[in-house]
Design goal:
This protein has about 375 residues and is mostly helical. About 75% of the residues lie in helices and about 0% in strands. The protein has a two-stranded antiparallel sheet. The longest helix has about 35 residues. The termini are far apart.
Length: about 375
């Protein structure tokens, strides 16, 4: 009876990451049929939901903005590993994979996560409130990183094509790390209150109604979160041949593979941001959205720059004209959203329409 009772106390969120790791070990390096691809996809979806749960447990324990930072950095580190792995196995054909994935991540976070969170919060509470100082600083950092790493390569003249020279790439990598590190210090040390949810009076509010989990539960959730994130990216890699085949069969351009990768990797953060918005803590949602965009550029580009030492072929980073127009419009709309410190369904809808435009043009450039 005791053993049965203990088994009943084990949550599905604890079982699924372990199950996913087993499935990943069995499926890695093998050709999968349609049935097995479907099974892997189901396990992948379950692991994503599990990752969201454990991220929320850790975030509740350490408090904001550390909780959002944990998930953003963890997901981005795994995203980098996935991009590098696919670039190594794909050869020269994946020269623009890093650009496509990072730009997709920026559009999904700044328009998808932010827009969805604002819409969910506005539908539930009428008007969403957040701190314009913290969100504005995050948006400024994202815009600077995106321009430095994704726009300038199109206009530099040292090398032909939308590429950086070796010295330019090194400068962009160092500048990205410096900017990201400065923002993290600002967010977690010097001006932590700028990134906390706010009350109707505009005052920081770090309170949570539920009691925080114990230290043991937090460590278990942190370990399972790491396992879940590795499994998510590993299973995404296993599914990548099916994804590439599906993209090709649908007649979509090869660059759409980067969009699919970004959608898969950012799914945990999207769900976590939506849940935070439902609790009237939209600032946490914005921390996740802008923090993920920032980490995606500020960590991915330096890692890819380092990996380019042994990667064959060119590294295409510069955006095309259509992508730059979407990026510029996104930055402009985001500024107008963030500055007032409050938003309605209108702002959320505008951001989601921008995301829809990006996805449509990624399919039909």
């Amino acid at each position: 009876m005791i053993a049965v009772s203990r088994l009943r106390q084990v949550s599905w969120t604890e079982v699924v990451p372990v199950l996913g790791a087993v499935v990943l070990a069995l499926a890695w390096g093998r050709d999968l049929g349609a049935v097995l691809v479907t099974i892997v996809a189901i396990v992948l979806a379950g692991t994503v939901l599990s990752a969201v749960h454990h991220a929320e447990v850790v975030a509740h324990r350490v408090g904001e903005p550390f909780g959002s930072l944990v998930l953003a950095v963890a997901v981005t580190v795994i995203e980098v590993a996935l991009i590098v792995t696919m670039m190594i196995s794909g050869g020269p054909d994946t020269a623009s994979l890093a650009r496509d994935t990072v730009f997709a991540a920026v559009m999904i976070t700044t328009n998808g996560i932010v827009g969805l969170s604002l819409l969910v919060g506005a539908f539930r509470y009428g008007v969403t409130l957040f701190n314009p100082e913290g969100s504005g600083a995050a948006l400024a950092t994202v815009a600077t990183l995106a321009t430095l790493c994704l726009v300038l390569p199109t206009f530099t003249a040292s090398t032909p094509g939308p590429e950086f020279s070796t010295s330019q790439l090194a400068f962009a990598a160092v500048a990205s790390i410096a900017l990201y590190a400065t923002f993290v210090l600002t967010q977690t040390v010097r001006h932590r209150d700028f990134f906390l949810p706010v009350t109707a009076d505009g005052e920081p509010d770090a309170e949570e109604h539920a009691s925080p989990p114990s230290t043991k539960e937090t460590w278990i959730s942190l370990a399972l979160l790491m396992v879940a994130l590795v499994v998510v990216v590993g299973l995404a890699k296993v599914e990548s041949p099916a994804i590439e085949a599906g993209v090709k069969a649908a007649g979509f351009p090869p660059s759409f593979v980067g969009v699919v990768i970004a959608l898969l990797v950012l799914l945990p953060e999207t769900l976590a941001a939506g849940r935070a918005a439902r609790r009237d803590r939209v600032q946490i949602s914005l921390n996740l959205g802008y923090g993920s965009a920032m980490a995606s550029i500020g960590l991915t580009i330096p890692a890819i720059a380092l990996a380019s030492v042994w990667l064959d072929g060119p590294l295409v980073l510069g955006l095309g004209p259509t992508q730059m127009v979407l990026l510029a419009l996104t930055v402009l709309v985001s500024v107008l959203t963030v500055v007032p410190g409050r938003a309605t369904r209108m702002q959320g809808s505008v951001h989601l329409v921008l995301l829809a435009a990006f996805l449509f043009l990624a399919i039909n450039p």
